[in-house]
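In this section we walk through a basic example: taking a raw amino acid sequence and producing a predicted 3D structure, encoded as discrete structure tokens. The instruction is simple. Fold the sequence below.
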Amino acid sequence: MARILPTSLLLAGGAACCLPASAAISDTISPFISTSYSYDDNLFRIDDKAPGFDGQRSDTSRQVQAGFLINRPIGRQLLTGQVKWSRVYFDHFDQLDYTGKDYLADLEWHIANHLEGHVGASYSQTLTPFSDLQSSDRNLRTIRREYVNGGWRFHPSWRVRGGFSRDKYTYDSIVQKISDRQEDATELGLDYLPASNSRIGIQLRHLKGTYPNRANLAAFGIEQGYEQDEVKANIYWRFSGVTQVQLLGGWVKRKNDLFSGRDSSGANGRVTVYWAPLGKVRFTGSVWHEFAAVENSLITSSLNNGASLAAAWDISAKVRMDAQVRREKRDFSAASGLVLPNDVNDTTRTSSIGLTYAPRPNIQLGINAFQDTRKGAPIINTGSYRAKGASLSASIQF
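The resulting token sequence is shown next.
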């Protein structure tokens, strides 16, 4: 089980990541502050054929963040965490101004020589993306997560593991309260661990999703919840120091609480390849075929097919370039909570590029640009749109 690193959870343009310990005030607590200025020419992801709110589509925003990271060994245990506050201001659509909060705590525990795992919780409050619900009203999304997992290495080459997690999603907007949901996941796995630090395993997972605000909507064909059972291979293979492959894939069956005619099953999975042919250039490629939840007032889920490619280039000791392209097609007919015609889907393409300059180990300056396009499905209110934008950011860790 991989260690959860709070520094990886900082938002783009947020705080510096992976700084040396010498840059921190202490070995336990590392405060940080950051600011960013962003421009988006289609903030609400409005359909190309629809007028903008207040006759305007674009806006600029300013963000200020402050917080601290925690890294505290307690004997053989390790406590890590993050506390972060954000304040975001919009120049034109100032009704969207909000204060965001992010908290995370994780305890990596060890008992004797063969038992280890994690227990932790997180809380995140931020503005809900506008891609699936076009509205000029502020809609904050809160995600709460609790989890516990553990593994027993009963042989140098074998490990059995299990875990439980609960994710709870709630929304401010009255329109999207129908999408409030809770997902409980139980997991059990067996892994073979060769000396190469690879992993070959099998994983069983049960997922149960419930929608507490849909009790009176069954008569309108709105699904109340679902259960999903998975049997997947869980493989991480180090071909060399240059190439590693990760696979989580197998068979999934998704069953709806009320309308069994909408049940789905079939192959599901994701493959990720890490390739670093040169010391300063790294590539990460992924392909996936997975069920996923949808933040839409009409439907609950989709079957997604996608691919992405990301690259990082350390131009010098102080300058790094990052780029990414991504394409995803969502099929709503296969897994949604409504009875829909065949071939109801949308396709989203995104690309981004950025430069990061670190004049000192604890200071980062960044510039980023993105493009986002979608060919939508009007029948479920996911319109076609085009958007592009850019941002400037600065951060310092004490």
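Looking at the output, two observations stand out. The longest strand covers residues 59-74. The two ends are 30 Å apart (CA to CA). In the next section we compare this with other chains.
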